[in-house]
Amino acid sequence: MTSHLPSGLQGGEEALISEGVLLTRLDTAVGWARKFSLFPYPFATACCAMEYMSLSMSPYDIDRFGALLPRFTPRQADLLMVIGTVTCRQAPILKRVYAQMAEPKWVMSFGACASTGGFYDNYTTLPGIDRIIPVDVYVPGCPPRPESVLDALMALQRKIQHSKQKLFGEVADPT
Ligand code: SF4
Q1: With a 6 A CB cut-off, is 47 part of the ligand 1 pocket?
Q2: What is the pTM of this model?
Q3: How does the average pLDDT of the chain come out, rounded?
Q4: What is the 3-state secondary structure (H, E, C) of 107-155?
Q5: For a FRET experiment, which of 18, 31, 108, 140 has its CA 20 to 30 Å from that of 39?
């Protein structure tokens, strides 16, 4: 029998035992669902935001990855995309946005400024958001090409798929 399993479920541990009946691990199925239903919160502060906007245009079509719809409240988002320069005065706001997101949640550092402070080597600019919040994936470039963002998104999806999935009532370590 030829199976037509979603790619995330082809791990050798799944079995299609009849039409409409699929055996898999709960962890695998939850990971597959989570990686293809990301809801980004764009914390956009500077010029990298132009590249972010282009991701939803037809040449790049981020909707193919299930990550198109931005949520403008952190309580409805699970992917924090930090896009652009973050100043020290903005740092407490970014920390609060991250804290308000529900578990499980992930963070993408979008571009050189968010990752390292970029060329702003001065006392007003945060030299990388990983000083204040955990980062799952970094996107290099000033600005990054949309292809780089999609590459980072796929890396994040692989990370989500292979993570131990937190289920009901489980919370992240308070770090
Ligand atoms: S990385 Fe470059 S394009 Fe992005 S916010 Fe910084 S200066 Fe602007």
Answers
A1: yes
A2: 0.85
A3: 88
A4: EEEECHHHHHCCCCCCCCECCCHHHCCCCCEEECCCCCCHHHHHHHHHH
A5: 140
